[in-house]
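Q: For a teaching session next week I want to show students how multiple molecules come together into a single three-dimensional assembly. I've collected the sequence lines for a complex. Could you give me the predicted structure tokens for the whole thing so I can convert them for display?
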Amino acid sequence: MSATTALAHRFDAWVRSGDLTLLGLARFRILFAVVTLLTLPDVTRVAAYPDAWFAPPLGPLRVLPAWPPEPVLVLVQVLWVFALVALALGWRTTAASVSATVLSVAAYGLLYSTGKIDHNILAVLLPLVLAWSRWGERLSLDALRRSASAPPDPTAPAPAPPLRYLALLVGLAFFSAAVPKVVAGWLDPSSQAVQYDLYAEYYTHGRTELLAPVAIGLHSPLLWETADWATVVLEGGLLLAVLSWRAWRTGLAITTLFHLGVYLAMNISFSWNVLVYAAFVPWDQVRLPTLARRAPAALGRWWGGVVAVAVALAWTGVLALAGDPAWFVSRLVIFVGAAVAVWYLIVQARTLFRRPQTGREEQVPTAVGGAGSH
Amino acid sequence: MTGVQGEAALGVQAGASITGVRTTVLLRALFALTVVSVPLQLGVARLVSEPYPGLFLPAFGAVPPDPGQRVVGVRSIEVDYADGTQVQYTSDDLFPEVELEAPMLDFAFYGERGQDPASAEWLAQRVEELGDRGPAREARLEWTRLTYSTTDDAPPTSEPEKTVVVDLDGA
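A: Of course. Below is the structure for the complete assembly, covering every listed component.
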């Protein structure tokens, strides 16, 4: 066997190894769709902008000569919401997943046609990638339609390739952020790039909350140079972690804490990424109240409608509590994500100290407790 | 790991369509092409501009051209209304719907777009909504450079950068 063939076979085994179940992914599907719905921007706002402000980024939006008419924008917004509601309910899940990504690209493409691209591409691509993960085969209207002919197995594993591919996309995206930093001189000890950016965030963008006043008062070049190096090492190194599920989850846990630090010091929220990392959490191991576990079966065909009403009530509640659900939910994602990350790192650390290394990753407890394979 | 568990971990089960030879080849090609596309994307972003959609996260990129100093830009907007009053606004007042208001103000008014009659018309309508005091006559948008020391808490030095006057009377 040649080295190339051996490598290809190793890749084949690697790409198909994983420990997530269809139930866990289905829970994540609902979480992803609901959080995305609660943080959805309004694409119709560009209808008020003059055509002189239409400057789409390099890409498919450049076929448009000007802003689309307002009815078209309203249609995009309605279809976008519809696709995400269908995703939450698991109604024609594959089509809903693909539609969610296509409509996100269109809507965000329009919103980014005023000169600035917000980097939420991972959350935009996620539904398309997981469309082939069978994440709609549990806790879904699709499952209810099929259950008569094939009763669902709650422990059925999810296909690993879509998850591996999503991990690769995350790793490459971070790598694409690390390379320009190295080229720009972030590792040069004579200049402190993170501190440099902090000044713009604080004074130009008015990001002066939480720990930002403390951070702006820190003048130690050693501290800020360490921040430069840590950022580049984390962003560049995450790609290597793709090779092992345990390393990957550990890397994501550290990255989630990195996002929390960036939010506290610079008030930059990267909740989109944290939501994407949640795809790798084995949600099937989270113990839900008995009522929540049995609700889909008990409610039968009414399950979808009940979930829709629950989402609407939750939306109303968040609106009443926070005024701006997108702001509130995105911050909640960052803090809850950080809590899960700390929990996972503690579990990993305890495992390291308790048990001698056997070389068998699959014996290590997973992120949300219990023993499971990685 | 038992044989059944092993098959499950590999996604080999009834109904899974990811185990065939054709799928294996497709997976290899997909992963390889995705990896190869990243340097191409980075090249396009560097030579032309950042594409969308594209697999990018924030690069930030800039490092201090003059270590020990940081020049930041601040904006101020002053509007004269027809009733004789004068009101100061921020870019946040004009663009509350966007995440970063300052770059939006730059995009819309710092360059040639600021001279476009449609931009003036938009601004006239916006400040009329904000002011609740009838139509406005003129807006002065000022960009100022503030130079901070990054080694201590010394107050910044200030230097005017640009002023754009937008006639709102005929807008």
